[in-house]
Design brief:
The protein is α+β, with helices and mostly antiparallel strands and 311 residues long. It folds into 2 domains: 81 residues, Phosphorylase Kinase, domain 1 (2-Layer Sandwich), CATH 3.30.200.20; 184 residues, Aminoglycoside phosphotransferase (APH), C-terminal lobe (Aminoglycoside 3'-phosphotransferase, Chain: A, domain 2). It has 9 helices and 10 strands. Helix 4 runs antiparallel to helix 5.
């Protein structure tokens, strides 16, 4: 946090004792500290993460006004008078992230879906520091992987047909929505019973295609969340989510191994193996149709099983 004089100064400013300030381990972008029982301090680890903190200051009030449950901002200080970086003091919530939670309440995913719907329903507007993400075409990635020898030509043809089929299920030119951008287990806070409590960490927020929001959850979780979202027609968001799982999974296929990461998508093959695991688990409708139609389209045999796999 800086010099030893910083802790007493922060303690005095926020009405806590110096021994009530404790660092919370973890966090890629920010160093985090509890300030007593009611406040939470976040300081960017380096200058490259400062813009994300400023972005959160713009987004959080808008998200809360829309009914999204996320901790309130108590103070934002960019004067660098006490800390040699801008910092954010927030309401401290007493909850556990979904990665470490021993429980998962049946209502969790439906409620989280309703919360994401509230976020995506926010009217388009200018928010300082919030970029607009575009939906890039994954098909050049397939061609490159085939040319470089990472996949065979038959698999490349099959994948291209799958993307072509998925593109008929949803509108890739649909208006952008406000994305949390890191909708993942480590940012979903739950209470001791595993009920949804709050959504945290808005540093990756952007305006972008709705389907991209669901690419950092496992498809099993997406399937349980979307009924609570109540937005698109039958199959539209499922197809969009699958599009991004496949697209990002292929983009990361040649990445280096990543060990000891809390996020399940860190290893380069995780998303693609996640798609395989999901379709092998007998998912509910309309998921089988999204797999079987696309796979059948380019398979030598039309004898595909009910879970979307073709011999």
């Amino acid at each position: 946090m800086g010099a030893m004089t910083t802790i007493p100064a922060l303690a005095a400013r926020y009405g806590v004792r110096p021994d009530q300030i404790h660092e919370v381990p973890g966090g890629v972008a920010n160093r985090t500290y509890t300030l007593g029982d009611h406040l939470f301090l976040r300081i960017p680890r380096s200058q490259e993460f400062e813009a994300d903190l400023v972005k959160e200051v713009a987004i959080i009030p808008v998200a809360r006004a829309a009914g999204v449950r996320t901790p309130a901002i108590v103070d934002f200080d960019d004067t660098r008078a006490l800390v040699d970086a801008p910092y954010l003091v927030m309401e401290r919530i007493h909850a556990t992230d979904l990665v470490d939670s021993p429980a998962e309440h049946p209502s969790l995913w439906l409620e989280l879906g309703e919360q994401v719907h509230r976020l995506h329903d926010i009217e388009a507007q200018h928010l300082d520091g919030v970029p607009t993400d575009e939906d890039s075409d994954p098909r050049p990635t397939v061609d490159r992987l085939a040319a470089d020898g990472f996949i065979d030509a038959g698999t490349a043809k099959w994948l291209l047909a799958w993307f072509d089929r998925l593109a008929t299920w949803f509108d890739r030119a649909a208006p952008k929505v406000l994305l949390h951008g890191d909708l993942a287990a480590q940012n979903v806070m739950v209470d001791q019973d595993g009920r949804f409590h709050a959504l945290i960490d808005w540093g990756d927020a952007a305006w972008g295609p709705a389907g991209a929001e669901f690419a950092k959850l496992r498809l099993e979780q997406v399937a349980r969340l979307l009924p609570g979202y109540r937005q698109a027609g039958h199959g539209e968001l499922e197809a969009a989510a699958l599009w991004f799982h496949l697209s990002w999974g292929l983009s990361n296929l040649t990445g280096p191994p990543r060990q000891n990461q809390r996020h399940w998508t860190a290893p380069p093959t995780s998303r693609l193996l996640g798609v395989l695991r999901f379709f092998a688990s007998d998912p509910p409708s309309p998921w089988p149709e999204l797999g079987s139609r696309s796979m059948a389209a380019s398979s030598p045999s039309s004898d595909c099983d009910r879970r979307g796999f073709c011999p």
